[in-house]
Amino acid sequence: MGAETGPGWRLVLQGLALLLLLPGPALLVLGLLGDDGPLAEGPAWPALVAGLLMTVVLTPFGLVVLAAVRRSRLDHDRLRRSGVPATATVTAVRPTTIGDEPGLDLTLLIAGAGLTTFEATCLVDGTDADLVEGTVLTAVVDPSDGLFDVETGRRNPLL
Length: 159
Hints:
By secondary structure, the protein is α+β, with helices and mostly antiparallel strands. The protein has helices at about 5-20, 25-35, 45-80; strands at about 85-100, 100-110, 120-125, 135-140, 150.
């Protein structure tokens, strides 16, 4: 999990999903209105074809975005309910890119009371001179399956 799971980002992603889901059906409706609708000046079939194609192509993407937002919210809620405090020690830091932006690929050793110590990786946006090998970060872990979130000290304005 990371900064993109905050409520602000969830709202942005839900808006994106709507932008993917609505144009196709809207064009279908406009095409079906035919002679009585805004397309009365010309044939309705181009709007019907465009609406059908947009619906078939964009709807799966919109549904995937909505499913990812829901999964993120459920994971966040589960960690808040049943997560236990832990520490995440940075064991390796590698520069990477996330999209077109610079980022860090962290290897973490996560440990806590009642947890089996495990290793995990975490992508962090931006670059940070404070994130070096040996840095100890605060984490929360769901002991049932190892789902975790790490506090890197970064604050996104959309959180």
